[in-house]
Amino acid sequence: MQITGVNQYHLDGQVDGAFYPTWIPGYPQGTHELELFEIETDEGITGYAASPSFAGGLDYESPLSLFLLGEDPHDVEGILRKLETVDLVGPRPWHVEMALWDIIGKDAGKPVHELLGGSRKAVPCYASTGEYQLADERIPYIEERVDDGFEAVKLRVTEVEHIEMVREVREAFPDLTLMVDANKGWAVRVMEEETTWSFADAVEFCRGLEEVGNVAWLEEPLPRHDYDGYARLRRKVDVPIAGGEFNNGAYHYREFAERDALDVYQPDAALATGIKQATEVAALARQHGAEFVPHTWTNALGFAANLHVVTAVDSPWVEYPMEPPWTPEVWGFMLEDPDVFAHEDGRLAAPEQPGLGVEIDESVFEDAE
């Protein structure tokens, strides 16, 4: 089998209103921009991949074609080496690898998680918020998620003082598992600069979380490349420390591992590693007594890729992005059936269909730029 075509489509999905993600300080997000890639083969099997984007898009169909045309999509290792070159001189290419697994699965008639040696099972979801809200705004949201069957919710904070919101949420939900994301690992600086934390700030916030109790982890309290800082922080506090969602390539996670710096490894297959390297990071985490729970805030194809990995490596949770108006219908707008990722009582199983197990809505190609 050979790759015969690489096609890119810039898709622009509308959000009903807007929300203010903590990773884009001050920015009201009202659209869902992404780059959809269609990888064609000489045997009539097509694989799909997608990456986050922005207004106007980022066109790299031509260089990808240069590296991919004529290659056998089953040669994941060989193509990953070529993608390392793309990563060196251009945009991160790891999302492209999910299209290879989509093709391989369709060719074998098996879903990706089965190709990776996993068995289909329902995985507990945690409802993942995207913006900071005051407690009196956030509590009704959590009530809805608990009614939906979720057993855990991740809160977003940006300031050390936001520990008070977390305390109020804990008082309202004394038994609910909480995750907290400080979003200090990276930021998209469109409107304004993000608030950074010093090491002392991170320690202070962790002390507050220790008092709150039943916190599964604090996510990215420091910049994503501060491996030594993460190690120091983990030694100094009791709350579990998570990170690595947007690091770049498997070697970055070896930096964390060598320093014993994380309790939870979170590489996103669509952003940081691709699918194969994600499973390698999961094994690395296991060797160091840590958990593996990837980031999933990209789009439905990225979510699918991460859900297959979660299933294959038996992760304890899957992140479920839910910050109305940012809902599964929005991050899955390119799918023929967005309900493929509808949870049941806060649990979700990977698709059973071959490959990534999702079908693209043909109408999005007509609207693509």
Care to describe what's here?
- It is a single chain.
- The chain has 369 residues and is of the alpha/beta class.
- It has 2 domains: 3-109, Enolase-like, N-terminal domain (Enolase-like, domain 1), CATH 3.30.390.10; 115-349, TIM Barrel (Alpha-Beta Barrel), CATH 3.20.20.120.
- 37% of the residues lie in helices and 20% in strands.
- The protein has 13 helices and 12 strands.
- The protein has helices spanning 61-68, 76-89, 96-108, 112-115, 135-147, 163-172, 199-212, 227-236, 250-258, 269-287, 300-313, 328-331, 363-367; strands spanning 3-19, 29-41, 46-52, 122-128, 152-156, 177-181, 215-219, 241-243, 264-265, 291-292, 318-321, 347-349.
- The strands form 2 sheets. Strands 4, 5, 6, 7, 8, 9, 10, 11 and 12 form a 9-stranded mixed sheet that branches. A 3-stranded antiparallel sheet has the order 1-2-3.
- β5 (152-156), α6 and β6 (177-181) form a beta-alpha-beta unit.
- The longest helix is centred in the last third of the chain and has 19 residues, at 269-287.
- The two termini are 30 Å apart.
